[in-house]
Design a protein that fits this description.
Shape: elongated
Structural class: mainly alpha
Number of domains: 1
Radius of gyration: 18 Å
Strand content: under 5%
Distance between the termini: 48 Å
Helix content: 40-55%
Order of helices and strands: HHHHH
Length: 117
């Protein structure tokens, strides 16, 4: 694949930062730094740093955020069509896109049939 053929997938923490910057605060970095919405799952990650002792993987925080966005409907997360508008869209399932592809391939791989003797 040539450079520029596909959009580069950013890291989960970078995707959170981009969401806070573009979708939430209109591109104002100072507003992101001064965000007071402590109820938002992205609040501790908004500055692109994982706090010391943070016991949850960033992709799981994104999943929690997506559940909040869809009012708890897991099916709506899979059917989400906001790919172009939402920077965290690739991580909405709760795993990295590469891992998701691998998990899907493993699930679809033919399995050996074991018959009793």
């Amino acid at each position: 694949m040539r450079q520029g053929d596909a959009a580069k997938t950013v890291s989960p923490i970078e995707a959170v930062r981009r969401y806070c910057l573009t979708a939430c605060m209109g591109g104002q970095r100072s507003l992101v730094a001064g965000c007071v919405d402590a109820d938002c799952p992205f609040h501790p990650l908004r500055l692109k740093e994982v706090p010391e002792g943070f016991g949850v993987r960033v992709v799981r925080v994104i999943r929690r955020f997506c559940l909040r966005c869809t009012l708890g409907d897991r099916g709506d997360i899979r059917r989400c069509r906001e790919k172009a508008a939402c920077p965290v869209w690739p991580y909405r399932i709760g795993v990295s896109p590469r891992k998701l592809k691998r998990l899907i391939a493993e699930k679809r791989r033919p399995k050996q049939l074991e018959l009793p003797l």
